[in-house]
Amino acid sequence: MSRISVRGFAVASATAVTTVGAVVGVAAGGTPAADDNNFEAAAADTTLLADIPAGQQAQVQTASLTQQADAQASAADAAAKKSAEESARIQAAKDAKSKKQAAEDRIEAERLAEKKKKEEAERASRSSVRDASSFAAQGSYTVAQVQAMARQMVPADQFQCFSNIVNHESTWNYRATNPSSGAYGLMQALPGHKMSSAGADWQTNPATQIKWGLSYMDGRYGSPCGAWSFWQANNWY
């Protein structure tokens, strides 16, 4: 395709007009209105209508398509990057949740294992204690003998709490009597005869008194240590 310009079109038009004007002027007996040079000058100042060669038009179209393809590729890359970031965020949240759950499960498992271990130790301790009836009756008992009996009857993890209460109540005197209240024995039971539920020899046998004391502390406070905690807060139990 050849270059097409306004200039060429204007020159041709001007020539035609000049020719017609000349004919009209001659026919009317006048002179031509303008010469060809004036029209050429006017045509020289006109703007090009289409000045792009056919080959370059194809190049422009190709460049435009390339730009569109690049823009689409960039948009696709951005979308893919955003999608990947979102997927990574979701996965990170899932991983964090899984780690938290695993940590909580581990802590709970350790707690249960420790609880089981403690319960087994308590059962072993209780199974090793002696019953009051396993001790031979004596006419009298020293403090050391009474304490030795208590160590064999009271679970090991509860003995110190039990001992603390007995120390405060009777200083390990199984015949201790409170003259004002009538409380009696190692645990200062009030009234003293309530210890008969553990044995008829409650007045003379420290083992019977220890048996009753353990039953009382376990029943009312859950354990000797529970009773000791209450005693510390109230100075009685």
List keywords for this structure.
237 residues, 66% helix, 7 helices, Lysozyme-like_dom_sf, mainly alpha, rod-shaped, Transglycosylase_SLT_dom_1
Instruction: Quickly give the structural class.
Output: mainly alpha
Q: In whole angstroms, how far apart are the ends?
A: 117 Å
Number of helices: 7
Radius of gyration: 58 Å
For the secondary structure, the number of strands is 0
Query: What is the H/E order?
Result: HHHHHHH
Approximate strand percentage = under 5%
pLDDT average, as an integer?
A: 79
The parts where pLDDT drops under 50 for at least 5 residues are 1-28
Q: How would you characterize the overall build of this protein?
A:
This protein is mainly alpha-helical and 237 residues long. Among the domains are: 70-132; 141-232, no CATH class. It is 66% helix and 0% strand. Helix 1 (6-28) packs antiparallel against helix 2 and helix 4 (143-153) crosses helix 6 (206-221). The longest helix has 74 residues, at 54-127. It starts with 5 loop residues before the first helix and ends with a helix. Residues 1-28 have low confidence and may be disordered.
